[in-house]
Amino acid sequence: MIRQLRASLRDIADDIRARPGRAGLSFLALAIGMTALTVLLAVLGGLQDRARQIVEELGAQVFAIAQAPSDAQTQPSLRLSARHMDLLRAHLPGASISGVQLTERVSAGGDRQVRIVATDEALLDIRPWRIASGRFLDARDLHNRERVAVAEETLAREWNWRVGDVIRLRETPYRLIGLLRIGADALESESTDPALSPGDRALFVPRTLPPYWQFSAPAAEPPLDAIYIRNPRGQSIEQSVALARTLLTQPDQRLERLSFITPEVLLQRLRKLQDTIRFTAGSIAILCLVLGGTTLMSLLVANVRERVTEIGLRRALGATAQDIAGLFVLEAILLTAIAALSGALGTCAVLWMARDRFPIPLRLDLFVLLTPLLVATLLGIAFSFWPARAAARISPAEALRNE
Amino acid sequence: MQPSSPTGPVLSMHDVWKSFPTPRGTVEVLRGVNLEIDPGSFVVITGPSGSGKSTFLNLASLLDTPTKGTLHFGGRLASALNERELCALRKERLGMVFQKFCLLTHRSALDNVLFRFRYLTSPDSDARSRAEHALARVGLASHAEQPVRLMSGGEMQRVAIARAVAQRPDLLVADEPTGNLDRAASTSVMETFRELNADGITILLVTHNEALLRYATRHLVCREGRLEDVS
Q1: Predicted ipTM?
Q2: Residues A250, A147: one domain?
Q3: A317 to B83: CB separation less than 8 angstroms, yes or no
Q4: CB contact (8 A) between residue A3 and residue B124
Q5: Does the distance separating the beta carbons of B90 and A318 come in below 8 Å?
Q6: What angle do CA A359, A361, A365 make, to 5 degrees?
Q7: Per residue in A56-101, pLDDT tens?
Q8: Residue A336 sits in which domain range?
C-alpha cells in the first residue's frame, strides 16, 4: 500500500515536472481561491468570537434598560429611578436587578478625573466582572451610606491605589474597599453607552450616598441611567424584556427615550456585517474556487489526452481501471491540497502580521488553516471525477493504438 | 495465481471472431481464428495492413476480448475472467514490446524497467535486482542511469524488451518491434529476442518485415481475418 502510494506520488511528481506551466496555472488559481476562503473564514470567525465575547461581557441572561441623558426641558420625574427597579422586582420574581447612575469627569485629586458609577451590591451578580482584590459593595454599605469605593483595576494600578487607601473625590474622603477587573473591550467596541461599559476610569460607590461629587443640589428621587436585569435561569429573556417594556412604557410612568438592550440588539450590527461579508467575500471565494476547480479540470482533461499512450502502457502492465482513475484523482487532491496549504498558510501569516491594522477582529487558528485543506480535498475529488472516469474508460487496446 | 501448465499451450484460440461496430455496420476483423502457441516457440505473424494482425495481438495480450469463440491463456478461459483477473494475468504472465517503445522518456533506463513492477507487489530490492539483471541481459547494464531520451532507437527498444522480460513472462508479445529501427538496430533487437527465446521465453511477434522470419520457429500469415500456418 505504502509502496503503491509512493510510486503514485512519484508518477505525479514526474507529470508535474513534465508540464510545469499547466500545473502552475492550476496551482495559482486554486491558491487564490484558498486565499479568499481563508480571509473569509478568518473574518467570519473573528466576528463570531466577537459576538460571543459581547454576550459574555454583558452577562448570561442579562439585559439592560437604559435611558438617554435628559435635555434641559426634561423633568427629573421622567427619569428611571429606584421605584422602577421596585416595580420590575415585583413583576420579575427571581430576577437580579441593579441600578446604575453615572457621573462623568469627577476630580480625584490634581488633574485626575474618574467616572463615578453609583450602584448597588447586585451589580456584581449580574455583570460578569471579577473582584481582583478586596470586596465589592455590599448591602450594609448601601444601608449605612458608607463612603466606600471600588476602583477599576487598571485605574488603581496607574494611580497606585491599594485596598484600604483613602482617596478623595472633590475633597470628600472615601475608603477604597476593592479593585474590580472589568475587561469589556468587545462591548466597548459595539456600544458607546457608558452604562454598559464604564471603561477603565470607573469608580463604584454606593447608590444611596448623597452625591458629594456634584455641585448641584441632589434630586428628591435620584435618577438612574440604567437598570440591569439578570433573568432567572430557564426563563425566556424575550418574555422578560417584553414584560419590562410593558411595565415601563405605561403612560403613568412618564418615561421617555428608553432603550432595551439585549444581546440580540447588541449583535445586530455585527450580524449585518457578518451577512455582508459572508455574501461578498463568500461569493468571491466561491467564484475563485470554481475557477480554480475548472482550471484543474482542464489540466486533468489535457493530461488524460496527452497521456493516452501512457495509460495504455499502464493497463498493459496490469493497472486496473480503478488504478488509472485513482492516479488522476490523487494528482488532483495533491495539487489542490498543496495549493490550499500554501494559500491558507500565506494568508494566515499576512493576516497575523497585519492583525492590528484590521478594523475587525480576525480568528487565526487551526480551523481556519485546515478548513481550506478539507475544501481542497473535496474540490480535488469533485473536479477530477470526470477526467479520472474518462481516463479509466479508455480501452487499453485503443490507448496503445494511439502510440 | 494458478501457474500455467508446462506442457499445455501458452495460448490457444478456438474459432475466435472479433467484430467492431461502425457507422456503416459491423466489421468482422477476425473470422474464426484457430491457434495454439506452445511453450518455447518463436511465432512470427506477417500479413498486409488491415488484415487483423493488431486485433489478433490485442486478443493475445488480453487487452481485448473476442466477440465469439474461446481464448485460453495458460489454460485459463479468458472470457470467464473478470477485469481484475485479466489485469493480474497481464502484469504477472505477459510481456509486451511496442513499435514506438512506449517508454517514459524523462526517466532513466533502470526506472523504465522498474516500471514493470509498478503494479506488482514485489519488494523494492527484488524488483531492482531483477530490473538490473534484465538490463544486463539486453546489453545495457552500463546505461542503467542514462535517461532514455538520450538513447538511440535500438537502445530504447532494448530497454523496452528488458522491461517486458524483467518479470519473466509466459508469453512475450511484440508488435512491429523493429518498425522504427534501422537495419543494424533491428538485427541487434532480433538477436536479443533470439537469446530470450533460447532461454525458454515464448515469443509472439507481429511484423511486416519478412527478413525477420529467419528467427521464427513458426510462421503464420494473417489474411482477411484468418491465420494460416505457413511454417
Answers
A1: 0.90
A2: yes
A3: no
A4: yes
A5: yes
A6: 140
A7: 888 778 999 988 766 555 555 578 888 899 999 999 998 999 999 8
A8: 2-54+268-402
- Which range of A21-30, A322-331, A352-361, B4-13 scores highest in mean pLDDT? It is A322-331
Residue A326 lies in a domain: yes
Per-residue pLDDT tens over the stretch B191-222: 999 999 999 999 999 998 888 899 999 999 99
Give me the residues of A, 6-25, that contact B with CB < 8 A.
7, 14, 17-18
**Coil/strand/helix, residue A114:** strand
Q: Pick from A313, A398, A401 the residue to mutate for testing the B interface (most B CBs within 10 Å).
A: A313
Q: To 10 degrees, the CA torsion angle through B196, B199, B203, B209?
A: 50
Backbone angles phi, psi at B8, to 5 degrees: -70, 170
Task: State yes or no: pLDDT of B21 exceeds 70.
Answer: yes
In a domain, A392, yes or no: yes
Q: pLDDT tens, A230-257? A: 988 888 888 999 999 999 888 877 787 8
Domain boundary among A204, A234, A256: A256
Residues A246 and A387 in one domain: no
Domain identity same for A210 and A358: no
Q: What is the pTM of this model?
A: 0.74
Q: Where are the beta strands (DSSP E) in A130-281?
A: 130-134, 148-152, 166-169, 172-181, 202-206, 223-224, 226-230, 258-261
